[in-house]
Amino acid sequence: MVREALPHPEVAIQDLVRRVWTEGRERHDRTGTGTRALFGAMLRFDLADGTVPLMTTKRVFWKSAVRELRGFLSGETSIVPLVAAGVHIWTDWPLDRYRRETGEAISRDAFEARLLADPRFAARWGDLGPVYGKQWRRWLGPDGREHDQLASLVAGLRTNPESRRHIVTGWNVAELPTMALPPCHMTYQYFVADGRLSGILYQRSCDLGLGFPFNIFEAALLLRMLAQQCDLAAHELVWMGADVHLYLNHGHLVDALLARTPRPWPRLHLARRPADLFSYAVEDVVVEGYDPHPSVPAPVAV
Q: What is the rounded CA–CA span in Å between residue 38 and residue 243?
């Protein structure tokens, strides 16, 4: 008996893109751009064979994603280290705030140059508020003590792997008003069985065209890092999206994603095991065999 080949895992992503674009309800949104959205979706990605969910129907600049994740792991809330590394994915939010509050029609390049050149300007305008890194590493309790959720997660996975409390969340209600953007990929939970680590990412808001490719790659990378630090094998990543949407001005991106044939997913290798979860360098993340279709530029809704 001949066993049928399993469909490429990216086909499930294409199917979700198609459903959101053709069946989603058209909705007004905070940015004024407009979206088509569905509520509630799930995807599963097998990590056991060493592959990583890095989309091939458009190029994803995965090293920028690694730098973003490293910033979260460090507890950093300023965009300056990212800008210094040539990563611009967070610049639009503080830039928009600067333009609104000062009335100055400054370009992105000029704004970033000032951030790098003037520490006082960077302190005033380059900080995102208590976003992901702050909540993951320095969650402020009511008694004034800070809690390192990630350090506690690693300790729990090592000492009590069957716990149902392996959770990290960024949804700190008290600090939402002072965040540049409330957490979209907001809650992670992990599960250990038979020496294998699986994880769920719950995403309250998912920009399927731009944010999602970064989100699933970073979630898979974080799971691989955790597995290495805790002497476990990576197993499965489950992604759960609540408000899953495509922006109305991303029609050309949708057309490209649906017209292209997925290529084999690459493999991810960690070149070394650092002393802890917070000491990985960009160079430690090795992606082999990534052969994507060309990138598809699309505007970011702020």
A: 6
DSSP assigned state of 278: G
Q: pLDDT truncated to tens, each residue of the chain (302 aa)?
A: 545 567 899 999 999 999 999 999 999 988 899 999 999 999 999 999 999 999 999 999 999 999 999 999 999 999 999 999 999 999 999 999 999 999 999 999 999 999 999 999 999 999 999 999 999 999 999 899 999 999 999 999 999 999 999 999 999 999 999 999 999 999 999 999 999 999 999 999 999 999 999 999 999 999 999 999 999 999 999 999 999 999 999 999 999 999 999 999 999 999 999 999 999 999 999 999 999 999 999 988 88
> Which has the closest alpha carbon to 298: 212, 220, 240, 221?
212
What domains does the chain contain, in order, with CATH numbers?
A: 10-76+166-288 (3.30.572.10)
Q: What are phi and psi of 157, to 5 degrees?
A: -65, -35
What are the distances in angstroms from CA 268 to CA 182, 184, 222, 241, 302?
A: 29, 25, 12, 24, 32
Which DSSP state fits 197?
E
Q: Per the structure block, which two tokens stand in for 240?
A: 């759960």
Per-state percent for the chain, helix, strand, coil, to nearest 5: 40, 25, 35
Residue 290: strand, helix, or coil: coil
pTM of the prediction?
0.95
Tell me whether residue 47 is exposed, middle or buried, using C-beta atoms within 10 angstroms of its C-beta: 0 to 12, 13 to 18, 19 or more: buried
Closest Cα to residue 47, out of 201, 150, 202? 201
| Active-site residue set | 184
Note whether 169 and 203 are within 8 A (CB): no
